[in-house]
Specification:
Layout (H helix, E strand, L loop, with lengths): L1 H12 L3 H17 L6 H9 L3 H28 L2 H19 L5 H14 L2 H13 L3 H31 L1 H22 L11 H8 L2 H4 L3 H32 L6 H23 L5 H21 L3 H29 L5 H29 L2 H21 L10
Length: 405
């Protein structure tokens, strides 16, 4: 434990001072948000007494609005500024969390999840752009790993409290999540400088300023990378959305047992993410890291296929977590390296678009497979998507050279 604390202290000292604020604030909001989101499908299904197809449609609706939020957030990050966009995102999502405490009809949930989908993408897009502004090269991938480690340290705490609150006092979990985001917004207002690079006064700068998200996704190298990324994100979404529901419905496991799986994921990332990233980035090429990460997600689908008890589902979560640790910082660093400095918000928005689209596609797909076929059909889809992504990563995904503004 002392060794880990010393390593974390040295990690913070190696980065610009504002990064410490981002890391701490992200951990705070993760602790609040994770009181809610791991249990949201369970909460909605119980609150509305509805089937999984309807729950999947609500989550897909959130993802659809998330696409709109992503399209808006990318240009805002580059034009309005990283700091202002981050503040707007935090306040908007905080309002959505509080509103969820009062939702009791399908339309109420659709409205609040839509609000979350609209403002939510601004937070990771702005954070990722700020880190790309502050760092470069190997330090950037380590910075993304540090941000993710802090995020999961918060997630390790949130579900332990949220799982209990959502059974006893659900509204308190939503209030706590909203308060955490507002606290981070306050820190950003008073302590974080604006990191957006000055737009060059040239025709090239004017062209970059006029780039839309549609122009960005026409970048052939970005598209070739986002194709397998979308597939493996869909596989991860199937696990995150349906593991808890299948544990409850098919095997009679108590709902609050799922929190231990979420906590395992968070603790693994919080303690291992930075070390894994620092070690592998000097030994393996990016496409190997990505392909192996996707194969771990596929192996999680295999484990879930055979799972019948808590510990076998726990094994599936461990395997998926290893895959996430390999995939997440590598994908963020790859896109940041490809983006011009004055278009990082829009390139990060393209990556966020892939995240939103993966949920939009996976949520109704998994619900339909379980309702009309069998729970194991969800894991069959998980295995197929992740394995295909691994093959595509292995054929390409060479790390691009850093691009200037």
């Amino acid at each position: 434990m002392l060794h880990n604390l010393g390593r974390i202290r040295r990690m913070y000292q190696a980065f610009p001072r504002p990064l410490g604020l981002l890391v701490a604030g992200n951990g705070l909001t993760a602790a609040g948000g994770s009181m809610v989101w791991p249990f949201l499908p369970l909460y909605i299904s119980a609150r509305l007494a509805t089937d999984l197809t309807s729950v999947g449609l609500l989550l897909a609706w959130q993802a659809v609005i998330g696409v709109v939020g992503t399209v808006l957030a990318g240009p805002l990050v580059d034009r309005l500024g990283r700091k202002t966009t981050l503040i707007l995102g935090l306040i908007g999502v905080a309002a959505a969390y509080v509103a969820l405490a009062f939702a009791h009809t399908w339309l109420h949930f659709a409205a609040t999840l839509g609000l979350m989908g609209l403002f939510g993408p601004a937070i990771p897009i702005a954070l990722n752009a700020i880190i790309a502004d502050m760092t470069q090269g190997p330090a950037r991938e380590r910075a993304y790993a540090a941000l993710r480690a802090a995020n999961n340290a918060g997630i390790a705490l949130g579900p332990m409290v949220g799982g209990w609150l959502l059974v006893t006092r659900p509204a308190w979990a939503f209030y706590a999540a909203g308060t955490a985001l507002l606290l981070f917004a306050g820190l950003v207002v008073f302590a974080l400088p604006e990191t957006r690079p000055a737009m060059p006064q040239t025709s090239q700068g004017d062209r970059a300023a006029s780039l839309s998200l549609l122009d960005v996704v026409r970048d052939g190298r970005l598209l070739r990378f986002l194709a397998p990324t979308l597939l493996v994100l869909m596989a991860q979404s199937l696990i995150w959305i349906y593991l808890s529901i299948i544990m409850r419905d098919e095997y009679g496991l108590a709902e609050d047992m799922y929190r231990w799986l979420v906590t395992t994921n968070a603790l693994m990332v919080a303690t291992l993410q930075y070390g894994v990233t620092s070690t592998l980035q000097t030994r393996w090429p990016p496409r190997t890291i990505l392909a192996v990460g996707a194969l771990f997600v596929a192996s999680a689908g295999v484990a879930a296929w055979f799972a019948t008890s808590f510990w076998t589902f726990w094994t599936a979560m461990v395997l998926m977590t290893v895959g996430e640790m390999l995939l997440a910082p590598s994908t963020q660093n790859w896109v940041a390296s490809l983006a011009p400095a004055d278009a990082r918000g829009r390139y990060m928005a393209a990556l966020a678009f892939a995240w939103a689209l993966s949920t939009m596609l996976a949520a109704p797909l998994g619900g339909w497979l379980k309702d009309h076929w069998h729970a194991r059909a969800v894991w069959m889809a998980t295995i197929g998507l992740a394995t295909t992504a691994a093959l595509l990563y292995a054929r390409g995904a060479h790390q691009p050279q850093e691009r200037a503004a």
